[in-house]
């Protein structure tokens, strides 16, 4: 599997989430029906910083050979993040049906969890480039 597109797409998703959470924490909380206190706003901003950290890490590693034993910490971090978040989202979505955007995020996270697990448990195939 060519992981370049997986890393770029996860960069876009986590980067968007990180920028949104960093710059619009109160708006996110209000849209979710939560009270935007100083503490909850800070927690959303810290979460945004974590997402931005994942985004830049994935962007910088987009051309690295990933899978098997190669770039194992990078793959494990992404796999764990997307799997645990997907499981939490599935549980929350089942208990709170009716939110199409929540189901969209749940499906997106589940897809990333499956793809990163596949990369983690398979051997990488180096993409051969043709040179003149």
Spatial separation of the terminal alpha carbons: 25 Å
> How many β strands by DSSP?
0
Q: Mean of residue pLDDT?
A: 92
Structural category: mainly alpha
Summarize the main sheet: none
Give me the strand/helix succession: HHHHH
Uncertain runs are: none
Considering DSSP H and I runs of 4 or more, what fraction of the residues is helical? over 70%
Radius of gyration: 17 Å
If helices are DSSP runs of H or I spanning 4 or more residues, what is the number of helices?
5
**Total tally of structural domains:** 2
What spatial form do the alpha-carbon principal axes imply? globular
Strand percent estimate? under 5%
Sum up the structure in keywords.
132 residues; mainly alpha; 2 domains; 0% strand; globular
Describe the model.
The protein contains five helices and no strands. It folds into two domains: 1-63; 64-125. The protein is 73% helix and 0% strand. The mean pLDDT is 92.
């Amino acid at each position: 599997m060519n992981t370049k597109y997986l890393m770029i797409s996860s960069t876009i998703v986590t980067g968007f989430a990180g920028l949104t959470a960093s710059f619009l924490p109160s708006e996110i909380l209000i849209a979710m029906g939560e009270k935007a206190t100083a503490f909850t706003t800070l927690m959303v901003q810290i979460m945004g910083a974590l997402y931005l950290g994942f985004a830049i890490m994935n962007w910088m590693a987009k051309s690295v050979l990933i899978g098997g034993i190669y770039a194992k910490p990078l793959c494990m971090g992404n796999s764990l993040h997307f799997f645990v978040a997907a499981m939490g989202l599935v549980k929350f979505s089942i208990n709170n049906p009716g939110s199409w955007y929540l189901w969209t995020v749940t499906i997106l996270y589940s897809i990333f969890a499956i793809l990163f697990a596949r990369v983690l448990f398979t051997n990488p195939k180096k993409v051969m480039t043709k040179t003149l």
